[in-house]
Amino acid sequence: MPTMADVARSAGVSVATVSHVLNGTRPVLPRTRQAVLDAVDELGYTPNTLARSLVTSRTRSIGLAVSAISNPYFTEILQGVEASALEHGYGLLIADPHDDPEHERKVVQLLHERRVDGVIVAPSADPRELVSYLGRHEVPAVFLDRLVAVPADVPQRFDQVCAENTEPTARLVTHLAGLGHRRIGLVAGLPGLSTTVERISGYRQGLTATGLPYDDHLVAHGDSESAGAERATSALLSLASPPTALVTANNAMTIGTLRALRERGLSVPDDLALCCFDDFSWADLFSPRLTAIAQPSREIGAQAVRVLLERLDAPDRPARTVRLDCAFVHRTSCGCPDAGVGSGRSVQLSQSPQSPQSLQSPQFEKGSVS
């Protein structure tokens, strides 16, 4: 097996120069760097990552903890994380916290014990143990998709990366109201998640913008999963005055809602109009095709890696939250005609340029609605 010394002899440089090229620890002239890389390829040299980690205190690995890896949304985020990590020369260790606070802390601890350089986590609805562990052990971390209100007594700086939630949800509501709907229901996510809080807030903003009153009976929690959404949709449809349109707050809940409608023999959009938060690859294959908010899933994952690597390079810089814009994908489940819609027109939804920004997250209490 070739050694670093063999690479150095082949490239006509010192072992130290080879080390600087492979580890990026010091600038090297382009022609020298290329000579080293050519020698590495020619000899088939593989760096000893274990030995390198003992010298640099870095393993060049990242831990990723996200629940429901089978969910297309998190699957695309995973693809973005993996591609960006590989691009920067990092490996990836993956764990599923199952949206359970205790299990969440355990899997993050296991990732930490395997000496990952930092972790990317989609936190649960009650991340107190997680934040306490990460802060106590000073683990570099980025919170993904869901924001966390970090207590003031935790000195650790945590960065966060997520999509904009409030304005896109409001857009779905105003679109349905513009089509004449006056009783618009919401199948909301798991109480306590920041995404749930923000999408309910957007739902309320959309009602206010169109002069419609807020009715608490028209909001049912589907707990961010299909079976829960099926129950929530059934409850909404059982009201004395049921909604004529629904907004579902993630793609898993959209599936549950469609199942509940099928069980009742109802069709979309003839009997009930439907818009959903989260687009997915087969949303255009449903009949009717689903009008949806598309999140930039892969870019969220890639951005989380970049933010984490910046934290590793500058541990003391201020914490920041990066929010990415979504797109309104206009199809036909809302009740709009096919003509002019085609396979789905995508309209970018922009917010004022505040990302990256210093983190000033509100307190998200379990079950709260803002």
Structure description:
This protein has 370 residues and is of the alpha/beta class. 40% of the residues lie in helices and 16% in strands. The protein has helices at residues 4-11, 15-23, 30-43, 49-56, 72-87, 101-113, 128-136, 166-178, 194-209, 226-237, 251-263, 297-313, and strands at residues 61-65, 91-95, 118-121, 141-144, 159-163, 184-188, 219-221, 245-248, 273-277, 291-294, 320-324, 326-330, 345-349, 357-358. A seven-stranded mixed β-sheet has the order 2-1-3-4-5-11-14, with helices on both faces. A seven-stranded mixed β-sheet has the order 7-6-8-9-10-12-13. It starts with a helix and ends in a 12-residue tail after the last strand.
Which features does this protein show?
370 residues; alpha/beta; 7-stranded mixed sheet; 14 strands; elongated; disordered C terminus
